[in-house]
Amino acid sequence: MRVIPGSHLRQMAFVNTPNEHNLLPRGQTIIDVDESKAVHMNLQPGEFSIHHEAIVHNSDPNNSDDRRIGMSIHYIPTSTRQVKYLEKGRKPLATLPIYGSDLYGDTLKLAQANLRAAGLEEAVQLKQANVLEISAPAATGILVTNPPYGERMGAQQDLAEFYPKFGDALKQKFAGWNCYILSADMNLPKLIKLQVSKRTPLFNGALECRLFEYRIVAGSMRGPKPVQGDAGAQSVKR
Length: 238
Hints:
The protein is of the alpha+beta class and 238 residues long. The chain has 4 helices and 11 strands; from the N terminus they run E-E-E-E-E-E-H-E-E-H-E-H-E-E-H. Strand 10 (198-204) and strand 11 (207-215) form a beta hairpin. The N and C termini lie far apart (79 Å).
């Protein structure tokens, strides 16, 4: 067994070259390898080697009378599905419940290209839509959005009109969801008229922002107003 030390710390280009004499099902072969940097992992009979699965490695043909054994261990969640390197013409095992939308088609084209490059084109559903008009695709879920704010859309009056409508749309159509809004506009919580459950400082490049968390519930999160003369209300006042 030979390895290139440190090669697991960076992604290296490879090609699939299937070969009936190769134990790897796709015949993965790293290209442009400087073999002068290879280090042998010499083993005695009965010994075995352990290495990171991403490290560049190879071994000479097995000329012994016994088989060569290799075992790969991956720690992944049970929800993981293979979406790359499927047989030609096959679809992913399942379409994931991930949805995306934008008002502009050019932005969707960029998102589609990124998904295609990641092998996730068939797993995520995109559509062109106005955020004020879409409805929740499920009873519960997580919504993440980066709406217009002052640095990107200069008309503050437009924002002052947009945010309350956005808050109303979330209350009416996304009850039961956790919504996360990234914005540099610190007036957003006041304008959107929803109760913030968490504020996380983040930076969009050099622009300081906040990731606002909203837990959307049907109706109002405020308790009922006390009725004058009610015994329960009187005990609270004491």
